[in-house]
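User: Hi! I'm working on a homework problem where we have to compare a predicted structure to a textbook description. Could you give me the structure for the chain below?
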Amino acid sequence: MDKPNPQDDSSRRDFLKGLTTFPFVALLGAKLPPAAPVAALSRLPTAAPSSRGTEGKKNGKKLVAIQIGGRSFVDEGVEQVLDVLQEKAGVNVLMPTVFTYGRGLAGRQIPGQPLPDHGGQEYDEIHGGSYTALHAEFRAKSPLQDVRAPELGEFDILADVIPKAKARGLQTYCLFEEAYNPRLMPGFEEIAEVDLNGQFGASTCLNNPGTRNFLVALVGDWFRHNDLDGMMWESERQGPFNNTIGAHFGRFNGNARIFCFCRYCTAKAAGEGINVERARAGYTALGQWVKRVLQSESRAGSDSLVSLWRLLTEYPEVISWEKFWFRSQEEVYALLYETVKAINPKAQVGWHIMHLVTMSPFYQAEQDYARIAKTADFIKPCPYNNCAGPRFAQYIRNIQSTVFRGFTPEEVLEFHYRLLGYEHEARLDQLPIAGLSAACVERETCRALHDVNGAAAIYPGIDIDIPTALNEKRTQPSDVKAAVLAAFRAAAPGVVLSRKYAEMRLSNLAAAGEALRELA
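Assistant: Happy to help. Predicted structure tokens:
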């Protein structure tokens, strides 16, 4: 076998560096951020903060929120948990998980991960649903009825927690996640997304009127019957183009299902002038392109990108459908924002933007904070630098296997570091163990603040003990302290301690409080 030509390696590197000025994602209708260093971003001018996003701050202090599930309150007692959160971490805003069918925000520690030094010392099972009572108004408006979570008995995460929180001066923002289990939700197929082959998926169609009625009914019921100060919605999804090319940090085998082509989406898209059949044909061709590229042994650096670009110029409807998808998600943001404000105009409404936004330029291009801020009081980007190690490494391997097939994973990582403005970060072989530095938290916080330009508050998520493999990066107190300090050094008005209290070791939680004391 011929030895690789060093000149070929140099050419590949030059090609990747040249891509930093190549407007590949311009078709998405959004602009990439400048790949400036953190110090330069921190000097960028911003408008004076608007009145939006200020209700959550207590007496001029920084907002310090924490995400927490009902199981923790049941296991440890509401008062004891509130003592820990206030004394160790300086928390002034609770974000209790009021709805999810997923393990990420509900239940105890994920089985297989070490149990933390508090709470129940055994793993549990979750059913999921609404962890607060639902009333007649909900049942009258929602197409789904039986969604009350049963595993905590009569415990109500809002009614049983809010009065005790308010007595301590704590605010409460309900947190709910777009994570479903169709098997446990009778009638879910009425609102389910539909793939290119006409099969139901495990999430909802955001253009289905039943989905929108369901979400509005939930939110309206929670705010009419509880003294809430705010809400954050977690919709960790992206469009079909990104999923098909493997631009994510989950396992990828090239067989992504392509959503959503239900009757509501196709009718709405056609009404907006999108050729639905051409979009179908384009996504079929895109799926075939992925399979061909994964089987290719070509070493030509530009082959996969050139052939992808050729496909997109042949089927521009692929990008039109991608834009149609994420704009539909933003319509739901606006709908929920208006629902809350109609009940309580002072309530703070915000959106969790999933971790992928800090590693994928494809997803980052779609998440235009300036546009999203038009219907938000705050935005929570997730510069989770600790669990970013294994996640970013997996993302790089995924996207290298398709879009950048002709390059090595190390070259693709170097390109992304340059594109994202991340400096002096770990090599690919060390990334899962080292994670990313707190400088990345500062960089992403600065970018978000610059993009919203004062139109909404930015509360970056600080990852504390988010599960990774046992031989990968594990959160340390110094990591938490450095990330909190980095967020506030970037001038964030608050932070959200994430992912959930039930995963966090108390020493790591206390490190957030140590950072706050140092700032004070």
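For your comparison, note the following. The chain has 20 helices and twelve strands. The domain at 38-43+57-519 is CATH 3.20.20.80 (TIM Barrel). Good luck with the assignment!
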